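Our platform keeps sequence and structure together, in a single record for each protein. This encoding replaces a full spatial description with a residue-level series of whole-number codes. We quote a single record here, exactly as it is kept in our systems:
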Amino acid sequence: MQSRILIARPPCTHLFQNHTHQRPLSLFPRFKISLFPSNLLITSAPKARRNCIKTACISPARELFEKDSEISDESDSGTVSVSEQVLEVEGDGAGSGDRQTIWHQMKEIVKFTGPATGLWICGPLMSLIDTAVIGQGSSIELAALGPATVMCDSLSYVFMFLSIATSNMVATSLAKKDKNEVQHHISNLLFVGLTCGCLMLLFTKFFGSWALTAFTGPKSAHVIPAANTYVQIRGLAWPAVLIGWVTQSASLGMKDSWGPLKALAVASAVNAVGDIVLCSFLGYGIAGAAWATAASQVIAGYMMIESLNKKGYDAFAISVPSLEELRTVFGLAAPVFVTMISKVAFFSLITYLATSMGTYSMAAHQVMVQTFFMCTVWGEPLSQTAQSFMPELIYGVRRNLEKMHKVMIPFFLALAVTPPTLSLEGTLLAGRDLKFISLSMSGCLCVGALLLLLISSRGYGLSGCWFGLVGFQWARFFLSLQRLLSSNGVLHSDDLSQVKLEKLRAA
């Protein structure tokens, strides 16, 4: 006689399905053994009938472990012996995920944030290398880097919405354990990135000189030829830059920061060697720096693609999104776009005002702003960490808002103004509180711009502009902090009901 085990796990289907329609023998009371609320029923069945075991609907919230289980058939009389059955049930309020300590979470964050810090350092480091090498040769070319980097580097941050949208959507899909949806999002965003890159290439080709002339004004017309040379060469790498951002952000959304770090480390080395060889030894000046940077960006983009392919995804699969998918992407990206354009506009306004102060003031501002970016970039990995880790706590199976509150207290006490500002904004982006962050950033832009114009008109010079930047940063910090601690913040929202959460756990 053979036996079968039926684990009642509603609303799931039966774990055992019979492929022959034979009527089972009657169930004897002595064969009914209750091991936990989900009953374990042992019933007898004819020897001739073979059963097919199927695993169905075991959720992560209730793990089942069986150790050394054996059911022996001692005789045809129907005596069944169970040698050992060890069952461990993980309830909703317990489990290895919920038992994780804050110390363990901090170690995970450090493992991710450490390499991510290198990612954000590489970009400003390449610009700082350009500034240092060109500054050794010509003050005019050094001054020309100011408006030129606004057209290349600062304008590229407008498309940071691609990076944020990719990281957010990938992390959210992974929290739902849907790999096909992850690949679909990546393919759609690669198409958007490639399209934007080609459009920017055409813009810099046909309108780059006009934009530089409008930006610098008549007082600094002598720097336009050098700046335009730099912009035209760097513009050739626009498609590679935006494709690289999408693939890099996809890897970061998967909590992998080592792959992108390797790519950018190689790119930074290529840029440094290229700058030294082309500018210092061959004397190409600002054009040599542009070629070195463009080549390094193309190399970085290719290595980002290869890094994503090694994870089992196809970064060469570019699909045209439907209108509904485009609405979804731009519904997430539009508020982020407003946020980034506000930041870029404010920093660009500082550079614009510096251009009216003469060549030496422009050159000094270029050195100061690159040094400033090199220092403030240390907070960006915390923003990316929030976007990569918090979707799992906000939307995923491991949703736990109380745990997020506990992490915030030491977080605020340990950091200065710029890092927590970026971290708080990253949390708002992860929670998709996009309307608030776009409106707050627009408000900071308007007030900050008026403050800068007032400072400039009163003759406070370059130092006054930088004091305006201090006010801009502190305003961002307090607005984001107030939003997170308010009753309308993402940490207090309860968008997912318990029924939806249970369905998500069972999926």
